[in-house]
Amino acid sequence: MIFSSGWLVLQTPHGVFEGDTLVLRCRTRSRETLTSVKYIWNGKVISASNQSQDLSIPRASSNNSGFYHCTGRVDKMHTWRSNTKSVQVQELFPHPKLKVTPSQPTEGGSVNLSCETQLPPERPDTVLHFSFFGDRRVVLSDWSRSPELQITAIWRQDAGSYTCGAAAAQGVHKLSLPVHVYVQGVPVSRVLLETQPPEGRALAGEPLVLICSAAEGTGDTTFSWHREDTGESLGRKRRRSQRAQLEIPAVGGSHAGGYFCTADNGHGLACSSVLNVTVTGTPGNRMGLIAAGATGGLLSVLVLAAGLLIYRRHQRKSGDGSPGNTTRSSPATGPGQAPHGRCQGQKDSPVELQHLYGNGSLGEGHLVYSEIQTIRPGQEGEASASGASLEDKHAAVIYSSVKTQLQGDSAGKVRSQHEDATDNEETWSQV
């Protein structure tokens, strides 16, 4: 028989928190020794002993909350039942919350992770340790007492879910809900191509460094260098930087021409403007270049005088007149030649074909053209393809590929300056 007259008492602790050891005691009011004890939780026997002993539940959790009572005997005839006690295991601290600042960081910027939770007033001295995790529970920091973690630079590949954990010495561990972090990228812009030596002035046989940079843009950037005339790709480099360079070990005459570079960080392609590279001389022959330049200057004066004489002779024969201007574009890049295409707004600058002389009256099919480049003092290496003037006393004027159709030649047949001048006095000389 089981008696429940209050003779048997179940003693429980007051205020049980997670991680505590829950101790239950079954006692008689008269302090008699029990010969057997059973502890029952929510109607289930969780412990039975032939001795009078306490029940200890280490590291209690909310799962141990419920209704408890005990039964005991002092002899073989009588079994006593205790009162029922409700035991509630309190939360030591709630699940932490992960706070990300800023919530949508920019690539390359810093991010602060904060793991927030709160201790109860009854346990203000409880020591908590914190840790932070990335995608797939990748550990970002060891357990420490600091509830914050700073990521000095975050990148696009770092986007994903982040969590944090809090733990007490009593063995209580809790994780936050995952927080998804989206990393914003900044497209590349204001791409610039520079050279070393500067301004594209290369010396034959010496190295030329092509430097491509972007004023803005984040993350890994792919830089490419191209020839503007052929669209040939010279090289490609991927850098977590806004600047990269490509070196041509030894330049030659074939390296002269227009160059441009592109930058792409996955948010859009951006191109630089075209930079013209000129190649002059050789490092070991500078004195020879100076002498050749002086000789060339003298010859240019003599040839120019000869050209003026021929012009006057032609003017007397042809009368007055002025042929119209013609414009041609610089060579276009063929389909598929430029791997990255051309930038919006990047256009070829038309080159103006100047008539060698403006007062001639050559008939149709007899037009004489020359590209005129004017080099003024202090602007060596910069050539103007339009607006050249013979009256500019301080400018050196270069005429190239002067040709005309001679009288008596078949239609469409063009004679050049290299033909024998004695064949016809109308033949023009190259200057």
The first-to-last residue Cα distance is 133 Å
Biggest pleated sheet: 6 strands, mixed
| Percent helix | under 10%
Computed CA radius of gyration, to the nearest angstrom: 46 Å
Spans of at least 5 consecutive residues whose pLDDT stays below 50 are 284-295, 316-342, 344-431
The number of distinct helices, counting runs of at least 4 residues, comes to: 1
List the domain count as a whole number.
4
Proportion of strand residues: 35-45%
Derived structural class = mainly beta
Give the oligomer, counting copies of the same chain as homo and different chains as hetero: single chain
Note the overall shape: rod-shaped
Number of strands: 31
Summed over residues and divided by their number, the pLDDT gives a mean of 75
Region (Disordered): 222-243, 315-347, 405-431
Organism: Lynx pardinus
Biased composition (Polar residues): 323-332
GO molecular function: transmembrane signaling receptor activity
Short key terms for the protein model shown above:
431 residues; mainly beta; Immunoglobulin-like; 4 domains; six-stranded mixed beta sheet; 31 strands; rod-shaped; disordered C terminus
